[in-house]
């Protein structure tokens, strides 16, 4: 299982900008955690460190053993590959046989609702469909840790909410550890079981909130008073983070 232990994490860039300062945080295996904070506070830097794409200046980050998948803000699809072959790319790079990787990619695309679009090319897809392909490409390796950096931020509200519902259902199915960076308090409330709010740069822990809402979340939950109260609590923490 994929438990994350962060201890006294500090990240300083070459220009002496301190992105993260003395951050200590534990994320339990199978947990869905949302990370929020002011723009430029170090959320994406934290995600990159968890992915092994960047290294701490000091402190330690211990992540469990298993595959890690990363979903960026942009889908980054290869325009000359159709949807099926885009989704299969990670397995191709791992040396998986053609038949096995296409079968796995087909299954992942079906899980994100793209069974009818496998032969299309990126230029033929809407923004929401491109992000579904990106999500399928992340799921195809059956990751133990899924990292998402504001993947739905550029989408319209209706598409974004539908993808939030789909992502939550995928998490309920696979129970991987998820760390999701977002600026949206409502998105964090709907998706996560926990909201971690970071301060303005350098990032430090401001609030660690448990989200006590039903495990299975339908669109109607957004009109529930408990949903509004939780969203308000996260917003108030964000206000404190700017202080």
Quick recap of the structure?
Helices cover 37% and strands 23% of the residues.
Write the layout of secondary structure elements.
Elements: E1 4-12, E2 18-27, E3 32-36, H1 43-51, E4 58-63, E5 68-71, H2 83-93, H3 98-111, H4 127-139, E6 145-149, H5 157-174, E7 177-181, H6 185-191, E8 194-198, E9 205-210, H7 225-241
Describe this structure in words.
- α2 packs across α3 (98-111), α3 crosses α4 and α6 crosses α7.
- The protein has 7 helices and 9 strands, in the order βββαββαααβαβαββα.
- The chain has a 6-stranded mixed β-sheet with strand order 5-6-7-3-8-9, sandwiched between helices. A 3-stranded antiparallel β-sheet has the order 2-1-4, covered by helices on one side.
- The longest helix has 18 residues, at 157-174.
- The radius of gyration is 18 Å and the shape is globular.
- It starts with a strand and ends with a helix.
- It has 2 domains: 4-66 and 144-241, Rossmann fold (3-Layer(aba) Sandwich), CATH 3.40.50.300; 78-142, no CATH class.
- The chain is α/β, with parallel strands linked by helices.
- It has helices spanning 43-51, 83-93, 98-111, 127-139, 157-174, 185-191, 225-241; strands at 4-12, 18-27, 32-36, 58-63, 68-71, 145-149, 177-181, 194-198, 205-210.
- Kindly report the name of the CATH homologous superfamily of the largest domain: P-loop containing nucleotide triphosphate hydrolases
Radius of gyration: 18 Å
Taking pLDDT < 50 over at least 5 consecutive residues as the criterion, the unreliable ranges are none
Q: How many strand units?
A: 9
What's the CATH C level of the largest domain? Alpha Beta
Number of domains: 2
Overall body shape: globular
For the largest sheet, list the strands in their spatial order: 5-6-7-3-8-9
